[in-house]
Structures are given as C-alpha cells and as structure tokens.
Automatic annotation (TrEMBL):
<dbReference type="InterPro" id="IPR035979">
    <property type="entry name" value="RBD_domain_sf"/>
</dbReference>
<protein>
    <submittedName>
        <fullName>Uncharacterized protein</fullName>
    </submittedName>
</protein>
<feature type="region of interest" description="Disordered">
    <location>
        <begin position="259"/>
        <end position="282"/>
    </location>
</feature>
<feature type="compositionally biased region" description="Low complexity">
    <location>
        <begin position="260"/>
        <end position="272"/>
    </location>
</feature>
<dbReference type="GO" id="GO:0003723">
    <property type="term" value="F:RNA binding"/>
</dbReference>
<dbReference type="InterPro" id="IPR012677">
    <property type="entry name" value="Nucleotide-bd_a/b_plait_sf"/>
</dbReference>
<feature type="compositionally biased region" description="Polar residues">
    <location>
        <begin position="273"/>
        <end position="282"/>
    </location>
</feature>
<dbReference type="InterPro" id="IPR000504">
    <property type="entry name" value="RRM_dom"/>
</dbReference>
<dbReference type="Pfam" id="PF00076">
    <property type="entry name" value="RRM_1"/>
</dbReference>
Length: 282
C-alpha cells in the first residue's frame, strides 16, 4: 500500500493523478512494498511487516542523467528486470510546479553480487533512454567510524523534525523530556544535533526520543558522525581511489571545491566550523 500522505488519491504530492495510479499499480504488483516520501526523495521499499535485514555495504548503485519527467513507473520495472530490488530512492524537486525529478536515483540490491551484476548490465553503452545515456556507478561509500571513537561520541543526530519547529522549541521539548541529560541542541532545517552530558546520558536520550512523534513526524535518532568523517572532510581529503568510487556529479563538486581552496589565500578557511548532516563535534 502507499504510505499515507505520500501519494494521495488526488495526486497532490505528485505531478498528476495518472502517475499516482501508475505507482499504485507498481505497489500492487510488488507484494510487501510501498512508497514513502521523506527529505526530498520518494522511496520504494519493503514494509516494516516484512522485517527484512538491511543489505551490507556495497549493495547500492548510483543512477544519474535520468530524464526529468521519468518516474518510478518506468524506472523500477527496468531495474527489477536485472535483479530483485531491496530499495529504490528517486530524488524529487517538490518545489517545482511540475514535480520534476532531480535527475538521479539510488538503487539498492539484496547483495553485492546482484549490485555488481546490475552495474555491469546497466552500463551506459547498454542503457540509452530518450537518446540519453544514463550514468551508472557505485554509490559513494560511507566510511565506518572507528569503534574507539564511536564509544566516545556523546552527540546525537535527530532526523525528521517538524520543519516549522524553532531551535528554541526543540531545545525546550527535549530538555523537558530528558531533564538534566542534554547540554544544548542545534536544529538545522528538519534535523538537529543534540549534545548530551556524557555517553551514558546520550544512550538514555536515544531511548526517550527514538520513535517520538511531534506533529505527525516520527523522530529517528542515531549517533552523530565526528567531523573527520563528515562529507566536507572527505571532500577536502579524497581517498586515492576517489574517482573510482563516487558519482560523476560528486567528483565535479569536489574538484571545484579543491580548486577554490587552492586559489584562496593560505590562511583563509571560509567554511571552517560548518558541518554536514550526520556530523558534529563529539
């Protein structure tokens, strides 16, 4: 079934009613799967009832250069013909009146073997849509945090907060629920970093906030990633095999960032102190 509030019967959250019906047909043909809309993407994934374990790292591929008016009703069957999908994420521009996609998606399979098979079969030379060759590559890998560092983290990354909540309101709510356990809260858009007194306090706060519903938004809580593992840090210090394991668009962004940093004065660091989602100080 379709998640409530994601694809209404009137098609308010997609560009037309016809697409809504076509997506409904995909759900009906895929037992145990549904669509969930969150954070600028529409996700085709298994329902919680199936209780499927998440695939290990290295099972997701990146698909780029997708035509802007092509949606899941055409994309999902194409990828399902290669191998069984575990999750499909299409990035959407919900601010655009025509509800275009953003030109890229992520496809996750049940195993690395299936993902490798799909990546080979979906090679741009074999995959041309509307006279456009799709870009296919491994999704950018997220480095594992060192276990020793992980045990020292006392900052939580809380996702899916109501966008209209101010930082003061979030801080007041969390302080009320977790008296004496939180030192400060920093909200950005629909997520926040929650700094706790110590590691034990952070674990207690996680138990209290995980699954909490605020204005129909169910909170998700996980450990914040240290700054050295953030996207910005990885952009400044790309690995040796960087060009082999990240999407083309990411390569261009990082190349521009590195060029701008080389051309700036040695002592300038205009973006110091900024963090990306899932990263903050311990």
């Amino acid at each position: 079934m379709l998640e409530r509030g994601t694809l209404g019967a009137t098609g308010q959250n997609i560009h037309d009613f016809d697409l809504s019906r076509r997506l409904e047909s995909i759900v009906e043909a895929s037992e145990g799967f549904h669509f969930v809309q969150q954070n600028g993407q529409r996700i085709f994934t298994a329902t919680p009832d199936l209780n499927l374990p998440n695939p290990p790292a290295g099972c997701e591929i990146f698909i780029g250069n997708i035509p802007k008016f092509m949606f899941e009703d055409e994309l999902i069957p194409m990828f399902q013909s290669v191998a069984k999908l575990f999750r499909f994420r299409l990035m959407l521009d919900f601010n655009h009146r025509t509800r275009e996609n953003r030109g890229f998606a992520f496809v996750e399979f049940e195993s690395h073997l299936l993902a490798s098979l799909a990546r080979r079969q979906l090679h741009p030379r074999n995959l041309v849509i509307w006279e456009r060759s799709l870009y296919v590559d491994w999704a950018e890998p997220v480095p594992e945090v060192d276990p020793g560092i992980l045990q020292m983290i006392r900052v939580l990354y809380v996702k899916n907060l109501p966008i209209h909540y101010s930082n003061e309101r979030v801080n007041f709510t969390f302080q009320y629920l977790c008296k004496g356990l939180i030192t400060k809260t920093h909200k950005i858009k629909n997520y926040a970093f929650v700094h706790c007194v110590d590691r034990e306090a952070a674990q207690l706060v996680t138990e209290k906030l995980l699954g909490l519903v605020l204005d129909d938004c169910r909170l998700e809580v996980e450990w914040a990633r240290p700054r050295q593992y953030s996207n910005q840090s990885r952009a400044r210090h790309p690995p040796i095999n960087f060009c082999l394991n990240v999407p083309l668009r990411s390569r261009r962004i990082v190349k521009q960032l590195l060029q701008s940093r080389r051309s700036s004065p040695p002592n300038s660091d205009s973006d110091s102190g900024q963090t990306s989602p899932q990263s903050d100080e311990m």
